[in-house]
Amino acid sequence: MMRLPPFRYFAPATLPEAVKVLADYGPAAMVLAGGTDLLPNMKRRQFTPQALVSVQQLKELRGIRETENGSVIISAGITLHELAAHPLIVSRYPALAQAAALISTPQIRNTGTLGGNVCLDTRCNYYNQSYSWRKALGFCLKKDGDICWVAPGSAKCLAISSSDTAPVLVSLGATFLLVRQGSERLVPAVDFFRDDGINYLNKDPEELLTEVHLPPPQGTRSTYLKLRRRGSFDFPVLGVAAVLRIEPDGVCTAAKIVLGAAACKPRVADNAADMLIGQKVTQALITLVAQEAAKLAKPLDNTDFAYGYRKRMAEVFVRQALTKLAE
Amino acid sequence: MNHNDTLIGKPLPKVDGLAKCFGTTKFADDLFLPRMVYGKILRAIHPHARILRVDTGKALARPGVLAAITRSDLSIKYGIMPTSQDETALAVDKVRHVGEAVAAVAALDEETAEAALEDIEVDYEVLPPIMSIEEALTAQVRIHEESKWGNAQKEVALEFGDPTAGFAQADYVREDSFFYEGSTHLPMEQHAVVADFSPDGKLTIWSSTQTPHYVHRALAKVLEIPMSHVRVIAPPVGGGFGGKSDPFPHEFCAAKLAMLTGRPVKITLTREEVFYCHRGRHPVKMWVKTGFRKDGAITAMHFRSFLDGGAYSSYGLASTYYTGALQTTTYQIPHYKFEGVRLFTNKPPCGPKRGHGTPQPRYALEVQLDKAAEALGLDPIEMRLGMLTPANSETINGLKVTTSGLRECIEKVRDRSGWSEKFHQLPPGRGIGFALSCYITGAGLPIYWNDMPHSSVQLKLDRSGGVAVFCGAIDIGQGSDSVLATVVAEELGIDPADIRLVTADTDLTPVDLGSYSSRVTLMMGNAAIEAAQKVRSLLFTVAAERLGCPEQDLSARGRKIFSRTDPERALSFAEAVQLAETHFGMLGAVGSYKPPKLAAPYKGSGVGPSPAYSFSACIAEVECDPTTGLVNPVKIWIAHDCGRAINPLLALGQVEGSVYMALGEVFMEEQVFRRGLHKIPSLLEYKSPTTLEVPEIETILVESLDSRGPYGAKEAGQGPLLPVPPAIANAVYDALGVRIDEIPITPDKVLKALVLKERGDSLRVSVPQFAFPAPIRWQPGEKEKRP
Ligand SMILES: Cc1cc2nc3c(=O)[nH]c(=O)nc-3n(C[C@H](O)[C@H](O)[C@H](O)COP(=O)(O)OP(=O)(O)OC[C@H]3O[C@@H](n4cnc5c(N)ncnc54)[C@H](O)[C@@H]3O)c2cc1C
Ligand code: SF4
């Protein structure tokens, strides 16, 4: 079978200890949450960290709570299953509950965490392969090589952001709390993801993601639609997160559309969403908005399904998501 | 206690079921021997390259590495078919696909072995790869330089009757082209092997194989040790589906490394390596021309197939013939021509996957018939009912059909599915489709020429009334162990739980050729009945004397031997055994089975004949979304003529499993390559359905009671796969009005077809040009083959 490379294992009991190990090792350490993404990648030698820092024992990473101003704070170590089933999430941020429930299998949802899902490595089927496979190919920019096989002219890696919760968190206006030894900072979700398949997060290796803050929904409705081959456990090859607020008179006063799995980071379709503001949400308008939003989807031949098909589906899925919210 | 009681037809649990549920079954990878070490295989990184140098010096110097082997250690050729021995355990002059074995190491642990692979230096001269049927036909470069037909492994042309005259009689002739994509078996258990070499020169290997007998022969040949010094044991196999039917490099490597190190060696493949072993479904391009009368009857058929064989021959000879053999066993075809060619390409070799070479032509045939029915204004089911190959008949290509429950299968699915209210009448986006099929119950001929039995069973009775049954058959999950125990228990009137099975061990068990071609229930079952009846007659001899009644009056039931007319007169089974042992000495018996001579007298007639044929009919209902192109199977009705369901639970399991596998092939599975590499060699990215993707399946077992099968049984393990893909394709047409003549039916193909339809066009499959050889001609009744 495939074996893990050697590494040192740390299981700190407190947050300060955890960030200290991260600071000591710098880029040579990686955070281990559920391990559902990291460990298979290590077996395939995408990562060979000297140290793994487990966050299993950190109390600070457990739980979901509401603040006085109506925000909700989700700790990064919450499992996907807990997230999908939590009453606060289900009632106020249904898109997030839907996205979490659509991730993979019950086994993965019981083990995988929100933090891990947000920090999920970008994916590409030239890259999510064993070491010997990648060696046979001649490796690629993202790891050990100097060419991008998807777009050989590209100086940049185009691996796909494949997290289901990422586009939803961006659409909900979430902010992330990043803690490092001696300091912490809050980063809006939209700035957390970078348009680069290699350096895909605005996060230093020493930083631990501890919390995800969600602003009060303020009368919005949200939904998430996911395209994939098998409903039983596949990654998204397209995700559409949509948030709308429609006033009693039928006029839309807030709109957000974010495409997942369509680029290196979640793509925010503000041009499209703005077309809805101040308007009644008719089918005709939805069709135009969907066409506009789909322009942002630039799928490449590096995941499942033909890429032309995925592009076509972006429009269909945005239409379906908006129709659902407008009902 | 009634002499009419029977175990046959009872839904008994599998004899190995509990162990599998509790996780205590010991598969090959579960075995640990004292002092065992681990082997790993270095695999080719080029699809096509000459090997200039292999140097294991550095690897051998790594602490913990015990041995390393290369081409000079294992250079003798082997192959499953005697006429195409073109494989070596480690590549000798060239590598012909990415993943081909080049060198192997043994080390104290897997980590060291893996690291040592990186130390091995291989210099290659890269050659242009051939990755498609078309490239293989036109390329200058040859994958096997010595092969006489360029990159064609095998060319076949057969002609029966007078096709030209047949087409002239047709009212309607159509030509269609189809493509059936390749797919792999995906057994849950990855191949594993443990080899042990003892100081007296004897080799034992435990391997997850469907064919221990052939592995036995190949090991002796390649390692140059007598067969009597080689023992092959197949522990329970965690799924095979045809993917564990060839001898494989890891088996030779583990054996050689054990011989060199004097320590047991284990090699367990990774999932990716299983994709490189492959031997899966051939991608096949097909062209079919068929002439019809107004009532749908076929006047002539001309069928051409182009098989993308991968880098080696494997079972390819048989696969090629199978793409042309069984068209005639379902429909009366008075004049028939078949041409087939199998091409070498730089991909892992294709071979037998459930249905071996027949799902592809079945797809073509059943979709074409659906098109013809529409053109002729006939109901596709009624049309077929008028032209079925009758029971007890001989086909134009000399296949002898015995029983056939096909008509009953068709009527059952038609009536249960509500076909007449649904066909052409479902709301837009919903559709229903029909197809049928036929499959062999064991090949009539063995793989290597001989006149010996295909299966044998040996019994040993002990004084407690227990029975040990020895047979070379291997349970790969299909339930052969349960069938074996049931048959012997039935004949001896005891409980299957009283039976201890010793299977698939070439030292201890008599030969059974293996779990392939749906042969085991029929052949092993018949052998088991013969053996059991022999001992039963010994028991009856002594019991008759003791009970004072004639032997014909005796019955063995409920662990007793008793008089039918006066059941009070009885002996316990154990008492009878003791009496018989006293009288005759140690009690045992053997039984054997060999199929009757079936092949017609022409060259190439060896593939297709079978003691009996199974039949299936399937109706699929689908719902399609024209905006996304997604097709969702709603329900599958399938009826299968298995002759007799010895255990209906097992038969149902086989039918349902076949439907699963078929749905994978029709909707998503693709063994495809990009830049010479397998595109998606993982369980996550190679898409195959899980239970959640599979709709309700209504299975109907039809029993035609074939006198050649044990208690009338035929096969159930492969045939039911065949009608499902074309039934789905025909249902998609009913739903959306588009024909998808290629597998898999993916949403983007559906959308493309819808766009083309608006322009009055349709998706088209291209089939290459090829100059087939002059056909071998034959007519039923003809004694001598004509050149
Ligand atoms: C078969 C399969 C199917 C899958 N399907 C899906 C799917 O459909 N959708 C989907 O979105 N994902 C899918 N995944 C990916 C993965 O399981 C999930 O994204 C999961 O949420 C990852 O969480 P984890 O806790 O296991 O992360 P880990 O594997 O532990 O970590 C993932 C990455 O995040 C980093 N990390 C984790 N926690 C933190 C933290 N608190 N601070 C900083 N860095 C951190 C790790 O260092 C690592 O780089 C699938 C995985 C598998 C194996
Ligand atoms: S997008 Fe290009 S560089 Fe990035 S992982 Fe894929 S092949 Fe490698």
Detailed description of the structure:
The complex is a heterodimer of chains A (327) and B (787). By secondary structure, chain A is an alpha+beta fold. Chain A contains 13 helices and twelve strands. In chain A, a hairpin with a 2-residue loop joins strand 6 and strand 7. In chain A, helix 12 (283-294) runs antiparallel to helix 13. The longest helix of chain A has 20 residues, at 307-326. With 787 residues, chain B is α+β, with helices and mostly antiparallel strands. Chain B has three domains: 17-24 and 452-593, Aldehyde oxidase/xanthine dehydrogenase, molybdopterin binding domain (Aldehyde Oxidoreductase, domain 4, 2-Layer Sandwich), CATH 3.30.365.10; 31-127 and 188-239 and 244-277, Aldehyde Oxidoreductase, domain 3, CATH 3.90.1170; 157-183 and 280-444 and 601-758, Aldehyde Oxidoreductase, domain 4 (2-Layer Sandwich), CATH 3.30.365. Chain B contains 19 helices and 32 strands. In chain B, strand 28 (673-674) and strand 29 form a beta hairpin. Chain B starts with 16 loop residues before the first helix and ends in a 9-residue tail after the last strand. In chain B, 60% of the residues are buried. Chain A binds chain B through residues 1-3, 6, 125, 128-130, 132-133, 135-137, 149, 229-235, 304-306, 308-309, 312-313, 316, and chain B through 43-46, 98, 110-111, 114, 190, 268, 270, 272, 627-629, 668, 675-682, 684-685, 687, 689-693, 746-748, 751. The structure holds flavin-adenine dinucleotide and iron/sulfur cluster (SF4). Iron/sulfur cluster binds at residues 124, 126-127, 140-142, 148-150, 157-159, 197, 302 of chain A.
